[in-house]
UniProtKB/TrEMBL annotation:
SUPFAM superfamilies for the chain: FAD/NAD(P)-binding domain (SSF51905)
Species the sequence originates in: Pandoraea oxalativorans
Record has Oxidoreductase as a keyword: yes
Keyword field: Oxidoreductase
Name of the protein described by the UniProt record: FAD-dependent oxidoreductase
Length: 421
């Protein structure tokens, strides 16, 4: 009996940085493949982010090993357009077989023969393997507490572009990870009164003793941490490359005019209520900040590094009024708040992937990207193999592992020449 073999060996869905990295490693392993991208290469960097966004990491760090940024100083921060252009250039350099403008609509395992049937906006494809590279941040999430019956404008950070986009008036920014804190800063500088609702967060120093925090996290092994520390599941990381890069300091933001609040708890009758956790959240953020300075000092001492001392990095500014007497509620009308900006993160969306690769909560089941469903692979998910997995440099290393796994499978099959997965 002859087994009908799918025409495509490995189909990669998505051509963001994950899809491009995957293509590079598949090519290196000699694996025939095709990348399908519903829009353009690195589309999310172009149109899924606000106008002024720059990379959180310096250009020497937030890149793939095979190419430097042509027009960005290595210690500078690439704009979102420069990041997108970088991946377009990279794809060209490695001659990645990417077909843009093709959306994958469904993936279903074939019955009685190997591989998957892939329905797309460009017809049906048949693939032996599918690599899911559709991003760590797919569907913007607005929590259920969002007021429904209100004239307020409500915008998720994924749809925020610039201050002019928002109606005149003040803004409540909910969420103070890298997105929320940068958007709050931008709005305040544009003349808005901003209320920033701050939850648990880490806030590494931008730099310390002459080295960027990306370097410190690297040498301290933090990017390679394989599991999130218990209790850190809902902790955001507040860093910024904006305005040449600076340490996120909530007290400084408050002294600049931003009013900090605790986590947003509810909205009722035009009044926002906040949890009494602001002081604790700020204190924990300080702890995280200072612990990285301690770890950096210990590393420098252990290795005899003669880095310039930086005692001023340990000076914590005085508590602003919003911290000594935190708001428990805010009458949004009286405060002339016309916009709620939700910087509350993203969820995954795999409705199109109709295979047995998920747990009861809909989370992908995999080991370092190799799914429990043979022939299905995930790439670019947060903590796929380690802390760096959803970031530019980290996904490149995960892609290498996935490509090696695929190449090994192909070698097994080639030995007996049996096309199955
Ligand atoms: C505001 C923000 C700032 C960030 N800044 C940094 C930073 O400075 N440094 C850093 O390292 N990381 C940063 N990240 C994290 C990460 O690098 C980005 O989220 C990056 O876009 C992830 O790349 P990806 O290829 O995994 O996913 P994406 O960029 O999301 O790419 C996935 C691609 O898949 C396509 N796609 C999705 N579904 C389908 C389908 N069904 N069919 C076909 N195509 C499909 C999409 O169009 C998209 O192009 C940031 C994230 C955010 C949200």
């Amino acid at each position: 009996m002859t087994v009908q073999t799918p025409s495509i060996d490995t189909l990669v869905v998505g051509a963001g940085q994950a899809g491009v990295a995957m293509s590079e490693h598949l090519s290196k392993q000699g694996v025939p493949h095709l990348v399908l991208e519903r829009s353009r290469i690195a589309e999310r960097w172009r149109t899924g982010r606000w106008d002024s966004l720059v990379a959180n990491g310096p250009a020497w760090h937030d890149r793939f090993p095979g190419l430097t940024f042509a027009s960005v100083d290595p210690d500078g921060f690439a704009s979102k357009e420069q990041v997108a252009d970088y991946f377009v250039d990279y794809a060209r350099k490695i001659e990645a077989p990417i077909r843009t403008g093709v959306e994958v609509l469904s993936v279903v395992r074939n019955v009685g023969r190997p591989g998957f049937t892939v329905q797309t906006s460009d017809g049906t494809y048949d693939a032996l393997r599918v690599v899911v590279a559709t991003g760590p941040f797919q569907r913007p999430v607005i929590p259920a507490i969002a007021p429904t019956d209100t004239p307020l404008t409500q915008v998720h950070s994924a749809d925020y572009r610039n201050p002019e986009q928002l109606p005149p008036g003040n803004v409540l920014v909910v969420g103070a990870g890298s997105s929320g804190v940068q958007i709050a800063d931008e709005l305040q500088r544009a003349g808005r009164q901003v209320y920033l609702s701050v939850g648990p967060h880490d806030r590494p120093p931008r730099g310390y003793r002459g080295r960027d925090f990306c370097w410190w996290l690297g040498v301290l092994g933090e990017w390679d941490a394989e599991v999130m520390r218990p209790g850190k599941e809902h902790v955001t990381i507040a860093v910024s490359g904006a305005r040449g890069g600076h340490t996120v300091d909530f007290r400084r933001l408050a002294h600049q005019g931003v009013i900090l609040t605790g986590l947003t708890q509810s909205f009722e009758g035009g009044v926002a209520r906040f949890q009494p956790d602001l002081v604790e959240n700020i204190a924990r953020g300080d702890e995280n900040y200072l612990s990285l300075l301690d770890a950096a000092d210990a590393y420098a001492a252990r290795n005899g590094l003669e880095l310039p001392e930086e005692p001023e990095a340990r000076i914590i500014p005085a508590d602003p009024a919003c911290l000594t007497e935190p708001l428990s509620e805010l009458d949004l009308t009286k405060a002339n708040v016309t916009t709620i900006l939700w910087a509350t993160g993203y969820a995954l969306d795999f409705r199109w992937l109709q295979v047995d690769a998920f747990d009861a909560n809909g989370k992908p089941k995999h080991q370092r990207g190799v799914s429990k469903e043979p022939g299905v692979y995930f790439l670019g998910l947060p903590w796929l193999s380690r802390r760096g997995s959803s970031f530019i440099w980290g996904v490149w290393h995960d892609a290498r592992h996935v490509a090696e796994h695929i190449a090994t499978q192909r070698k097994y099959l080639a030995y007996y020449d049996t096309p199955t997965n």
